[in-house]
Task: structure prediction
Amino acid sequence: MPAHHSFDAVAFARGLMDIESTTGKEAACGQKLAADLRALGWNVREQPVAGDRFNILATVGEPRVTFSTHFDCVPPFFPSSLAGDKLVGRGACDAKGILAAQVAAAERLRARGETRVALLFVVGEERGSDGAKLANTLPNQSKFLINGEPTDLRLGTATRGAIRLRLHAAGKAAHSGYPELGESATEKLLDCLEVLRRAEWPTDPVLGRTYFNIGLLSGGVAPNVIPPHAQAELFFRTVGDADIIRQRVHELVGARLQVEETAFVPLVRLHTVAGFEKAVFSYATDVPFLDNWGTPLLFGPGSIHVAHTDHEFLSVAELHGAIDGNVRLATELLATA
Result:
């Protein structure tokens, strides 16, 4: 079926934004998205992920360039509205507005007779990327992956990696009036955190310095009890070999407390093309888990600074700019695929 020539990207985005798709609850939104793509003439495959959740792959031929993003969102859900030039609502820029721009670009390419473009939309990006990991098992001949995240219409040159660590400190409970009979796990943990705060971490000439955040602290049982246990959760945004971070943490504090790694996302160097503003991004994406879909690029409308907020929005002008940018990218990539 030929492409539709009058595609309303704003209406398409709002249709998805008005259906809650908080991670784990993507099924209803996925059903609408699959139906909408079929109505446009795409061959749609639904790949089961877990429970009633599924990824969506839409093709019209053998793809060489694949547009991809996610249709799950962070909580809380709030529906779409238009405020002047602003499309407001959960998913406006992360990532249902981006998804709509990718569909619009693919429709424009189809209208020109181009059939070597695919659309890959996944669940679970906001919590563990289970959708992307499963999508990576789908057989394909794609040479390039254009992943959509809020980049303010810039091409990403790289995304930082991430390591999340949980530190467990053990002590000995005692009456706070007799501290010499116990051992404070809280003080042990605080001492170790101060060592880590003062440590030197890797830097990179392009990505800059490692970011280190102490995100969560907990411990103790009561104010008048020497705390027998304490815990901290740390998050590193990495700029190089993650093993350097792991080894350094163990060298500095591993003898005094237990170090548990709870999450890891590798750093990614991204492909770029001429004619686009470029930038490094500190957030993680599905890109590391979609390496079977070709050389990765990162591009999309909207700002990461309003994603995940209660005032998430995307300007309509930027949405249309993303359509043009996606068409330009795909056209250039297809010429070499």
About this structure: The mean pLDDT is 97. The first strand starts at residue 43 and ends at 48. The domain at 161-265 is CATH 3.30.70.360 (Alpha-Beta Plaits). Residues 168 and 231 are 5 Å apart (CA to CA).
